[in-house]
């Protein structure tokens, strides 16, 4: 039956999302920065999404729970970041990196980044208090993460986070499985840009907006297979890789080939696998470097 | 139905529940609540599996930053070969190391620390049925397909006979060279309990070990390399199922009339299946050999009680005389030498196909071990991993026990490396899953195959005999199939 041979690109990742607006307008195009930066609202959380994800909070760290596919994907995020950092790195990257994780949820990525030997600190933010509580509680189970300054959670949206001076911005800013939940991606991305240090990287993951991805994530994953809780995705919010490339190029980012993409596919029984070209119709990572 | 082991699902292990220990535990408990020392990896058991795991972790550039402890109840300096050990005497605990195990020991830098003169590669195996004489011979030349030209560079070694002490010595030396492991030798684990959720930290998922020296350690990952009666497995509440074979493995170090039928450069291992179990003679350097005779506990006790000359005569008889003769010989309390001499005159044997005659037994080496088959339901739990005999115990007829432990250790090193590279908590079930899936099915298949072989050969009448000799002859005729058989014996190398 259909469930045996799925979904080349299960968009099965569930986490609380930031939402730029309560609006449901699909982001068919990313508008240039000038038209959108000033419209960043103070309250950026979509109330329907908040209540949805609060229900998932208790099982966030259950390896067999609804976040299992997200847990399984986490190692690939590091693989991709390593790839980005080794791309176009004329200037020796700093010994120890400072991370900002936007939309950190229960802390799956933030914890793992904070454990890496090459990490100086991780600041992880999420506007949803409940899931941040899950993250705080879970962090106490690992003495390494409790070392002062190693991992800091802040209950805030990116719009409300103070913009740092350039040299105090972050080496790596991450935005995993957030963009597809944002109503209006261009102004949202614009608020993130100043948090990336010159020469640093913005790394995100999301899903392409195609017929395949609608079929896989909404129809198969939520309705048929039931492996993703219903209501996790709104397909119209998905953003395509080409749209991101164009938009960042317009900001003058990622010049000289410092823009990477990696398509990944969930294969039942094997886990997540990199499949080149799959970024055009499924889950993908996107990394872009800010000019030094 | 095989008897099932009792399931102990309790996440607490206390070694000896005497009042004395309890009192001491209480005292430790108060200090442990204050400051257990925090480790990334705590390995209980410094046998071949545990030492190989820690050497692998210290050898890998990815995992060198980990804080590691080793706890061994015995004095580790006693599991070392004596300096200038003589080549006329060998330990009775030897293992047949597969090329895959040797390759791993080379990769972690331990193999060059082994005493090479004490290692005996062998190149041929003769296996036959004691009731029908159907025989398989294993050697790379006859197994090689006629279509693939002989490659002189290809190793013709099937496996390597090594004293367990030689392996543990090599690993200890390599580990000393690498350094960086907090080693508690002659120190027992007295209790393991889960930690507490205090104001600063939640250690409620962390195993806290209390040692016989009063120290307490908290383990991000607690590795049970603590043998068949694994206290770590008990603590984790992981059931281990299986059965006892009602057989003992009698080991001894033998001296032969010469270096073997193929001379010193072409050594041969022999195994004859008797209704009571297989008798195996494995080559050691020079004129020495190692015996593993699986038999009933009564016969094992009888063998152990014999004078050395009578024991030697019984080993020779074990490879030559009929099952009926052997049964009778086990009823005598002495005089086997003369009795066997007389019976041999009435038995036709093909001497060139049999192992050389045993002329002496190295004093003090005859020892029986109970044989059993056990398999843990899983190798992992929250902050728990089992390796080696703690995870599985196998009948020694295929000589796989120690090799499986080496495979486990290598796989767990790999899993921990991946966790460190990607910032996972190496003690979490998610991070450990890949270790379980890498090893469980492989080991289970080996355990099952060895168990079935034992059962097939432990039947001494009826249609099974005709079937099994047919089985052996068929395998002997099919070179490529046999090559497959040998490759699995040689660890897939
Ligand atoms: C007769 C016989 C013949 C065999 N022949 C072969 C063969 O030819 N080839 C082969 O591959 N294998 C063979 N084996 C199997 C092989 O010997 C074992 O598989 C191997 O020794 C297991 O290694 P290990 O490190 O897992 O466990 P062990 O060697 O049992 O080591 C466990 C260690 O844990 C320590 N420990 C236990 N409890 C505690 C505690 N509470 N605190 C601190 N320390 C503790 C023990 O002191 C011990 O040193 C044979 C076994 C037998 C019985």
Automatic annotation (TrEMBL), chain A:
Pathway annotation from the record: Cofactor biosynthesis; ubiquinone biosynthesis
InterPro entries: SAM-dependent_MTases_sf, UbiG_MeTrfase
EC id: 2.1.1.64, 2.1.1.-, 2.1.1.114
Gene Ontology CC terms, in alphabetical order: extrinsic component of mitochondrial inner membrane
Residue ranges, annotated region (Disordered): 1-48
Main location: mitochondrion
Binding site for Mg(2+): 177, 180-181
Swiss-Prot/TrEMBL GO biological process terms: methylation
Assembly and interaction partners: Component of a multi-subunit COQ enzyme complex, composed of at least COQ3, COQ4, COQ5, COQ6, COQ7 and COQ9.
Name of protein: Ubiquinone biosynthesis O-methyltransferase, mitochondrial
From TrEMBL, chain B:
Its membrane topology: Peripheral membrane protein
Gene3D superfamilies recorded: FAD/NAD(P)-binding domain
Pfam families: FAD_binding_3
Protein EC: 1.14.15.45, 1.14.15.46
Keywords of this entry: FAD, Flavoprotein, Membrane, Mitochondrion, Mitochondrion inner membrane, Monooxygenase, Oxidoreductase, Ubiquinone, Ubiquinone biosynthesis
Listed pathway(s): Cofactor biosynthesis; ubiquinone biosynthesis
Single GO MF annotation: FAD binding
GO CC terms of this entry: extrinsic component of mitochondrial inner membrane
Cofactor (UniProt): FAD
Keyword Membrane: yes
Domain of life the protein comes from: Eukaryota
Catalytic EC class: oxidoreductase
Domain FAD-binding, first and last residues per copy: 39-446
Entry's localization field: Mitochondrion inner membrane
The reaction(s) this protein catalyses: a 2-methoxy-6-(all-trans-polyprenyl)phenol + 2 reduced [2Fe-2S]-[ferredoxin] + O2 + 2 H(+) = a 2-methoxy-6-(all-trans-polyprenyl)benzene-1,4-diol + 2 oxidized [2Fe-2S]-[ferredoxin] + H2O; a 4-hydroxy-3-(all-trans-polyprenyl)benzoate + 2 reduced [2Fe-2S]-[ferredoxin] + O2 + 2 H(+) = a 3,4-dihydroxy-5-(all-trans-polyprenyl)benzoate + 2 oxidized [2Fe-2S]-[ferredoxin] + H2O
PANTHER family: UBIQUINONE BIOSYNTHESIS MONOOXYGENASE COQ6, MITOCHONDRIAL
Similarity field: Belongs to the UbiH/COQ6 family.
Function: FAD-dependent monooxygenase required for two non-consecutive steps during ubiquinone biosynthesis. Required for the C5-ring hydroxylation during ubiquinone biosynthesis by catalyzing the hydroxylation of 4-hydroxy-3-(all-trans-polyprenyl)benzoic acid to 3,4-dihydroxy-5-(all-trans-polyprenyl)benzoic acid. Also acts downstream of coq4, for the C1-hydroxylation during ubiquinone biosynthesis by catalyzing the hydroxylation of 2-methoxy-6-(all-trans-polyprenyl)phenol to 2-methoxy-6-(all-trans-polyprenyl)benzene-1,4-diol.
Assembly: Component of a multi-subunit COQ enzyme complex, composed of at least COQ3, COQ4, COQ5, COQ6, COQ7 and COQ9.
NCBIfam families, sorted: Ubi-OHases (TIGR01988)
Protein name as it appears in the record: Ubiquinone biosynthesis monooxygenase COQ6, mitochondrial
Taxonomic lineage: Eukaryota, Fungi, Dikarya, Ascomycota, Pezizomycotina
UniProt gene name: COQ6
């Amino acid at each position: 039956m259909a469930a045996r041979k799925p979904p080349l690109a299960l968009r099965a990742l569930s986490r609380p999302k930031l939402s730029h607006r309560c609006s449901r307008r699909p982001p068919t195009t990313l508008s240039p920065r000038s038209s959108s930066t000033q419209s960043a609202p103070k309250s950026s959380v979509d109330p329907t999404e908040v209540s949805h994800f609060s229900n998932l909070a208790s099982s966030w760290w259950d390896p067999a729970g609804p976040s299992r596919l997200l847990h399984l994907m986490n190692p690939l995020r590091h693989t991709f970041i390593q790839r980005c950092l080794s791309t176009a790195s004329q200037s020796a990257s700093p010994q120890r990196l400072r991370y900002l994780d936007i939309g950190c949820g229960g802390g799956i990525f933030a914890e793992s980044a904070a454990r890496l030997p090459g990490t100086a600190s991780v600041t992880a933010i999420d506007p949803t208090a409940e899931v941040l509580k899950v993250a705080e509680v879970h962090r106490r189970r690992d003495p390494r993460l409790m070392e002062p300054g190693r991992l800091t959670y802040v209950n805030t949206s990116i719009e409300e986070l103070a913009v740092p001076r350039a040299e105090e911005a972050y080496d790596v800013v991450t935005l995993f499985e957030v963009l597809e939940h944002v109503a209006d991606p261009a102004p949202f991305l614009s608020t993130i840009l100043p948090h990336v240090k010159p020469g640093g990287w913005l790394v995100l993951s999301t899903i392409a907006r195609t017929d395949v991805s609608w079929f896989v994530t909404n129809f198969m994953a939520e309705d048929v297979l039931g492996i993703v809780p219903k209501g996790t995705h709104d397909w119209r919010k998905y953003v395509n890789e080409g749209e991101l490339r164009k938009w960042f190029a317009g900001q003058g980012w990622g010049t000289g080939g410092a823009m990477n993409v990696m398509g990944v596919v969930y294969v039942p029984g094997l886990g997540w696998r990199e499949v080149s070209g799959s970024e055009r119709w499924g889950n993908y990572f996107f990394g872009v470097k800010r000019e030094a | 139905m095989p008897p099932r082991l009792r399931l102990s699902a309790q996440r607490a292990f206390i070694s000896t529940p005497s009042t004395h220990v309890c009192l001491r535990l209480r005292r430790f408990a108060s200090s442990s609540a204050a400051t257990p020392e925090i480790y990334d990896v705590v390995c209980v058991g410094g046998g071949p599996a545990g030492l190989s795991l820690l050497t692998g972790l210290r050898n890998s550039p990815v995992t060198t930053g980990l804080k590691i402890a080793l706890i061994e109840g015995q004095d580790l300096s006693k599991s070392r070969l004596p300096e200038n050990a003589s080549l006329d005497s060998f330990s009775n605990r030897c293992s047949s190391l597969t090329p895959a195990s040797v390759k791993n020991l080379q990769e972690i830098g331990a193999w060059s620390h082994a005493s090479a003169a004490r290692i005996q590669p062998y190149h041929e195996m003769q296996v036959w049925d004691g009731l029908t004489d159907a025989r398989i011979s294993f050697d790379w030349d006859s197994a090689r397909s006629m279509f693939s030209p002989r490659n002189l560079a290809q190793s013709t070694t099937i496996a390597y006979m090594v004293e367990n002490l030689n392996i543990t010595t090599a690993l200890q030396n390599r580990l000393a060279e690498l350094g960086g492991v907090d080693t508690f030798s002659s120190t027992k684990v007295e209790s393991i309990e889960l930690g507490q959720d205090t104001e600063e930290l939640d250690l409620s998922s962390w195993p806290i070990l209390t040692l016989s020296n009063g120290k307490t350690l908290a383990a991000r990952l607690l590795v049970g390399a603590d043998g068949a009666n694994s206290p770590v497995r008990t603590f984790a509440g992981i059931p281990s199922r299986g059965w006892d074979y009602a057989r003992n493995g009698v080991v001894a170090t033998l001296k032969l009339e010469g270096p073997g039928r193929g001379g010193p450069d072409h050594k041969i291992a022999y195994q004859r299946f008797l209704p009571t179990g297989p008798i195996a003679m494995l080559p050691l350097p020079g004129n020495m050999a190692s015996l593993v005779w699986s038999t009933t506990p009564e016969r094992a006790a009888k063998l152990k009680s014999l004078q050395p000359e009578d024991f030697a005569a019984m080993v020779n008889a074990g490879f030559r005389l009929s099952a009926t003769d052997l049964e009778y010989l086990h009823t005598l309390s002495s005089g086997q030498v003369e009795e066997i001499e007389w019976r041999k005159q009435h038995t036709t044997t093909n001497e060139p196909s049999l192992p050389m005659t045993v002329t002496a037994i190295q004093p003090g080496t005859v020892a029986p071990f109970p044989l059993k088959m056990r398999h843990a339901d899983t190798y992992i739990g929250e902050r728990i991993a089992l390796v080696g005999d703690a995870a599985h115990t196998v009948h020694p007829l295929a000589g796989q026990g120690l090799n499986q432990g080496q495979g486990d250790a290598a796989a767990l090193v790999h899993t921990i490396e991946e966790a460190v590279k990607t910032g996972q908590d190496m003690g979490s079930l998610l991070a450990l899953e890949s270790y379980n899936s890498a090893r469980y099915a492989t080991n289970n298949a080996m355990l099952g195959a060895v168990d079935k072989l034992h059962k097939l050969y432990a039947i001494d009448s009826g249609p099974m005999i005709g079937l099994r000799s047919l089985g052996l002859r068929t395998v002997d005729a099919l070179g490529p199939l046999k090559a497959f058989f040998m490759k699995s014996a040689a660890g897939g190398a």
